[in-house]
Design goal:
Helices cover 0% and strands 56% of the residues. The chain is mainly β and 113 residues long. The protein has a single domain, classed as Jelly Rolls (Sandwich). Strands 1, 2, 3, 4, 5, 6, 7 and 8 form an 8-stranded antiparallel beta sheet that branches. The chain is globular, with a radius of gyration of 14 Å.
Amino acid sequence: MSITQFKDALNAHLPDSSPVAVPLGEPIAVASTLSVERNDGVETGIWACTPGRWRRQIKAQEFCHFIQGRCTFTPDDGEIVHLQAGDALMLPANSSGTWDIQETVRKTYVLIL
């Protein structure tokens, strides 16, 4: 068994930065990730994103806990979900919708492939 620990998730350096894949207008959000992929279909990590609107592209089921910032997620088939530091969210596999980041967010996450 291998244990993964992320120390000080709020301040950890996130090495990968790139614009989101499907931006919806300006500003174009930039996401950063520090992740660990395991050989059992699970990925976990820390993710941050600057303000902007974009389409969700992840097909996996996702649990996330927001540790900084403020945003909304509007599912294609549902009502707007308001999120801020301290909130947690479970997204079902193949859920689609629009993220709107108002204040840079940081979250820890688990993807279940």
